[in-house]
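Weekly puzzle thread! Below is a chain. First person to post its structure in token form gets bragging rights.
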Amino acid sequence: MKGDCVNNLNGEHPNRKNQNAKERQLDEYRVNNFGTQMTTNQSTKVSGDENSLKADVRGPSLLEDFHLREKITHFDHERIPERVVHARGYAAHGEFVLHKCMKKYTSAKFLQDVGKKTPLFTRFSNVAGSKGSFDTARDVRGFAVKFYTEEGNYDLVGNNIPIFFIQDAIKFPDLIHATKPEPHNEIPQAATAHDTFWDFVANNQESAHMIMWLMSDRSIPTNFRKMEGFGVHTFRLVNDDGVAHFVKFHWKPKLGMHSLVWDEAQKISGADPDFQRRDLWESIKAGNFAEYDLGVQLIREEDEFMFDFDILDATKLWPEEIVPVELIGTMTLNRNIDNVFAETEQVAFHPGNVVPGIDFTNDPLLQGRLFSYLDTQLLRLGGPNFAEIPINRPVCPFHNNQRDGFSRQRIDVGQVSYHKNSLADNTPSPTPVEKGGYGHYQEKVEGHVIRANSPSFEDHFSQARLFWNSMAPYEKQHIIDAFSFEVGKVQSQSVRQQVVDMFCHVDSGLSEAIATAVGVKRAQCTPSDVTASSPALSMKNIIFVPETLKVAILLGKGFDSAVIGNTVRSLRNAGVTVDIVSTTLGPVQSASGRTATANQTFITVSPVLYDSILAGGGTSENQAEFDSHLQNYIEEAWKHYKPIAFTLNGSRYISKTSVQEGPGIIVEKNERDFNNAYINALAKQRFWDRNIFE
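Winning reply:
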């Protein structure tokens, strides 16, 4: 080796030569797309990349669109074996009970008989992050439900936000490429606070409405049990007479809809990256089952064009004040999974899994999903037989002439594997529509084959403005703060300016606040003139109950056992979960000699994991350390707007912290009033009028 070095003092080291050869080899495969013309993988020049090929501007997407098929197929197969999107998920088993007969609207049997129970499996997920990311990222949450009906599996595959970023599925690969970690450095994980995402937003302004939701508290839900779910798309319900209604599906949580504070969400991600999945697991294990009411919005076929928005546009919602949500049944998640891989990871959802009485519309985003989901499973689950995996099997038997393929589990007997046949008496045979066979809605379609969008899809700001108008003042401030953080992380000044210019069309005050925060010029534009609001969009108009909230009671030696004992009983009677937190695990002795058992310590659990803090006070061998822990817990609850309770013994910490007495601050004066006031404060959950900066 020494000789090699000496002989090459005036030349190039052999290893360096090999390295340079490898670099030259790699250069042949490197492609910089900047400034080039777009083509397919077959080098056919692409004339349009914004819209899929349709039969007229509002007609169905066409399978002959080779560019759509190539683009989505390539996207669907980009990751092995993790889901490209919705990779980080958690699930549970449950049942759906119908409360209202829907026979007038649909022939679907599981929606016919009041009281009918249908087993189901529900998976919640984050969209952007990898499987190994964290739960509390600012992100859209997936909300997918597989109903195991007597007519086959029906999958309602949606999100916790009722709209989406784009209008046409052909742009979905672009959206996710922009959202994911940037390819040159694979940063950042599970976050949209970076250049490529906001560059996509500014150059695809149909996303404006969705971005308003994403920057709102809706995108950081407290947990899966306290977030809404939506089918997103417009579907059809079709009854026995062939009469159809347009429908949107909603899931309304029984516990109301609640969210985290951004600072709290970031701290939780470090204290417990599994915060939301742990909550679902522990709640079901404790018997606090997650419950959601299923609601529908219905529009008659003849009323399709009576609104100032296109009902097939996935970037638009149907305001509940215009089209009310009718509750028809309840989903209860009551059983935890047995194996994450076998169930949560192998479950295969597909919006094309429908039963008679439920059909599709010409929503171009939905049309692309009908292709994409099935195509994705072929790679991710190893071939066409993924329906035979236990979690995906329907509860009713299935019969067809499909054979072989990877991972075939069923053993078919007999010599016939085709249709029509005489050797097996022409079986399995189709079922006529009038006897329960699936019949597609016979919609009339006509028009020119065209790659374009309907002009009715061109309004991108009216509903974004409607959302802004509907927010409470504190919600508006949270949106401004979210924009300031996200856009403030963008390195490109040009992109920051484009975002400010874009959201001027929503609200000039919002745009100016963002501009100030991110250091660019104020925009000059005419904002949307929409003055209407929709109370259903504000999270201030939700259910407030104390059930299943989690309280940390902070205790040291010498606490008042009578007060704490009665308070614990009152809290548990109200459905609240209680942890006793102290310096060490085990018994903590009160002034009367009775003990409470600490099941958490100050160093094993974080204050941000609780919905409220009760300061019980007391003493410790290291009083300074004990006081420091209590003050930290109290300060965290204070600045996250949570209710805080103080026993008489614990009230001495008020003066040692930022706490100011007022709403949400409960101080013991007499026992009964103390407990009632505390439970009422818990139900409210946040006190947004608190000035945490004084």
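Puzzle host: Confirmed. Bonus trivia for everyone else. The CA atoms of residues 145 and 584 lie 43 Å apart.
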